[in-house]
Design goal:
The chain is of the alpha/beta class. It folds into 4 domains: about 300 residues, ABC transporter type 1, transmembrane domain (ABC transporter transmembrane region fold, Up-down Bundle), CATH 1.20.1560; about 45 residues, no CATH class; about 140 residues, Rossmann fold (3-Layer(aba) Sandwich); about 70 residues, 3-Layer(aba) Sandwich (Rossmann fold). It has 23 helices and 12 strands. A 6-stranded mixed beta sheet has the order 6-9-10-3-11-12. A 4-stranded antiparallel beta sheet has the order 2-1-4-5, with no helix packed on it. A two-stranded antiparallel sheet has the order 7-8. Helix 2 packs parallel to helix 6, helix 3 packs parallel to helix 11 and helix 5 packs antiparallel against helix 11. The radius of gyration is 36 Å and the shape is elongated. Bound molecules: deoxyuridine-5'-triphosphate and magnesium ion.
Length: about 625
């Protein structure tokens, strides 16, 4: 982890080194001052030698100025190094996240990623600053001051040893309790962030269900918990200072007492005693800072680990070594494709006596392993899935074999959760197949350069998003070099030109974040236009006209047929009317192909299709509400 993070110090390495050097210089000066002061008192004041007073006074002044300069420089360099380090980390994380495939993204929650980019980086930044300042300064001060005290009076330095031992024990006790409380705070932060994120993005839903009070209550509970943990952690931390002051005063009294005896005995001078007092402060303060730095750093270890996790995540979908750089045509082939989103916990089917029996047997085996009556290997012989803990691969697509010619229009119909979206996600390689292969233009999608492939496939996602900016800017996500004419052309095709022209600012109308100032149907049409601007060889519309009225929907499809005949089109719809005039229609049922053919053929051969068609002809209802669908 440290190595991963350290790589990103980058060009701020010089600033870091300069900061360390300045800090060491400052510590040296701070140690020198009491030493010179002792000389000033002993050789100047005690003997009444004004010359020596001036000389040593000047030296002290010089040291003080140098300490000031070093201190300022150290602070400057340290803040430059740590902020630079933080911005490098954020940059690298952002780049890394942009390269994630969908399945990488599925692994992290949005809130988790945001916490990592913000709070966690700030923690590491603070810890880094601590490291190049406190962690350098305090040990240096400690060692130098100890050397000085020993050289002045070995006997009196024993007092420090006792004090340091006491302080060490006390601080360890305090820190141990504080750290455990702090580390729990950070986990809670994730909860808090995810609650904020979920609520703020879903604020409209929260309001429409009048759930504000409930949500506020939930939020308050999260804050309350953080408050409690913080108070607990801080209540340990606040003991630091009193304990430290107690030690300092005890030391000073002990040194005064013993020092007086030493002076009377002629083994110590007044000046030396004064400098001993200064070193007391130096040593004990260093100890305290050192301990604080330890807390900070150990707390930020968790943050560092979370950052490294994001940086080290390997994108599961990547371009191959010698990628194919051209998509020949828009033909698509699914060859015996099966697909799973990964392991999911499959609940026990309590109605199935077989499954319940298996569950109990597995529990018994696990218990035996836990109690040490059996090794895991022995248990595995009886149940190979003993380590599987109920996580199984759930296939959402099974044995899909489809061959689609370039330029065909394919309608896809199926109930909610029948894996329509999953099926088309495999074409632009948003996910990789688990088994079998998907071919575009006759080549396996894994052979293409990702950019080339995705440029050839225009996809309007079911959950589409617009970004803040003008309509023109949003459209040019599809093709940054599109002229105004081309943008308008695409909007005409997507039946979006009419409503855009009716806006006072036309195509320069600003879209708010998330596209909240256009209606659902308008947003869908803008997203279609955006996809069209890519001039894709394959166009996928995932339920993209669900919020568009039937007449407009029909005219969009007509425009597609006439204006982009060579583009292969996949149209997912819940409405028979949306897919009826497609060249062929695919009926999906729980991840398998139930039927594939023209409207007329399916009416004759496919039970599901016929019942849905009949129901919708009568009521205009959608797929899931068709009576007799289960038949
Ligand atoms: N699924 C996941 N993870 C995902 C997306 C979906 O496990 O990230 C599951 C849920 C569902 C199955 O895959 O059981 C198929 O989902 P899909 O979204 O492909 O279904 P759909 O046909 O597009 O449904 P809808 O009509 O609601 O869009
Ligand atoms: Mg879907």
């Amino acid at each position: 982890m440290v190595r991963t993070l350290a790589k990103h110090i980058g060009k701020y390495r010089t600033a870091s080194i300069l900061s360390v050097l300045s800090v060491l210089g400052e510590a040296g000066m701070d140690i020198l001052i009491p030493f010179v002061m002792a000389k000033l008192i002993d050789q100047g004041i005690s003997r009444g030698d004004l010359g020596a007073v001036y000389r040593y006074g000047l030296m002290m002044l010089l040291c003080a100025v140098m300490a000031l300069v070093f201190g300022i420089a150290g602070g400057r360099f340290a803040s430059r190094a740590s902020s630079g380090f933080a911005s490098n980390l954020r940059d690298a994380m952002y780049v890394s996240i942009q390269n994630y495939s969908f399945s990488n993204i599925d692994k992290y929650s949005t809130a988790g990623l945001i916490t990592r980019l913000t709070t966690d980086v700030t923690n590491v930044q603070n810890a880094y600053q601590m490291m190049i300042r406190m962690m350098m300064r305090s040990p240096a001060m400690l060692i130098l001051a100890l050397c000085m005290t020993i050289s002045i009076s070995p006997r009196l330095s024993l007092i420090f040893l006792g004090a340091a031992a006491f302080l060490g024990c006390a601080l360890t006790f305090i820190l141990k309790h504080a750290t455990s409380a702090f580390s729990r705070v950070f986990v809670k932060y994730d909860d808090l962030n995810s609650s904020v994120q979920e609520n703020v993005t879903g604020i409209r839903v929260v309001k429409s269900f009048v759930r504000e009070d409930y949500e506020i209550g939930r939020f308050n509970a999260a804050i309350e918990e953080i408050y409690r943990l913080f108070v607990r952690a801080e209540s340990f931390i606040v003991c630091n200072f009193p304990v430290m002051m107690l030690t300092v005063y005890t030391c000073i009294i002990a040194i005064s007492w013993n020092g007086a005896h030493e002076i009377v005995a002629g083994r110590l001078t007044t000046g030396e005693l004064t400098s001993l007092f200064s070193y007391t402060m130096n040593i004990l303060i260093s100890l305290m800072f050192l301990s604080m730095a330890f807390v900070m750093i150990s707390m930020s270890l968790a943050s560092g680990r979370r950052i490294a996790e994001v940086l080290n995540e390997i994108p599961s979908v990547r371009s191959p070594k010698d990628p194919v750089m051209e998509v020949k045509d828009g033909s698509v082939d699914f060859c015996n494709v099966s697909f799973s989103y990964g392991k999911r916990r499959v609940p026990v089917d309590w109605d199935n006596p077989e499954a319940v029996k298996r569950y109990h047997e597995k529990q018994k085996l696990k218990e035996a392993v836990r109690q040490g009556k059996m090794t895991v290997q022995e248990a595995e012989k009886l149940d190979p899935d003993i380590r599987g803990t109920g996580w199984e691969k759930k296939y959402v697509l099974r044995d899909i074999d489809l061959h689609i010619r370039s330029g065909e229009t394919i309608g896809i119909l199926g109930g909610t959760g029948s894996s329509k979206t999953s099926l088309v996600s495999l074409i632009p390689r948003l996910y990789d197949t688990s088994e079998g292969e998907v071919k575009v233009g006759g080549r396996n999608v894994r052979e293409y350069d990702l950019t080339v492939l995705r440029d050839a496939v225009g996809m309007v996602l079911q959950k589409n998003t617009l970004f803040s900016g003008t309509i023109y800017e949003n459209l040019r996500w599809g093709n940054e070099n599109a002229t105004d004419e081309e943008c308008r052309g695409a909007c005409v095709l997507a039946c979006a030109d009419d409503f855009i022209s009716s806006f006072p600012a036309g195509y320069n109308t600003r879209i708010e974040q998330g596209g909240t100032n256009v209606s659902g149907g308008q947003r869908q049409r803008l997203c279609i236009a955006r996809a069209l601007l890519k001039k894709p060889k394959i166009l996928i519309l995932d339920d993209s006209t669900s919020a568009v009225d039937t007449a407009t929907d029909a005219s969009i499809r007509k425009a597609f047929r006439e204006k982009i005949p060579d583009t292969t089109k996949f149209i997912i719809s819940q409405r028979i009317s949306g897919v009826k005039d497609a060249d062929r229609i695919l009926v999906l049922d729980e991840g398998t192909i139930s039927g594939f053919g023209t409207h007329e053929e399916l009416l004759k051969t496919n039970e599901i299709y016929r019942s849905v068609a009949e129901a919708q002809a009568e009521s205009g209802g959608d797929f899931d509400h068709a009576p007799g669908k289960e038949a």
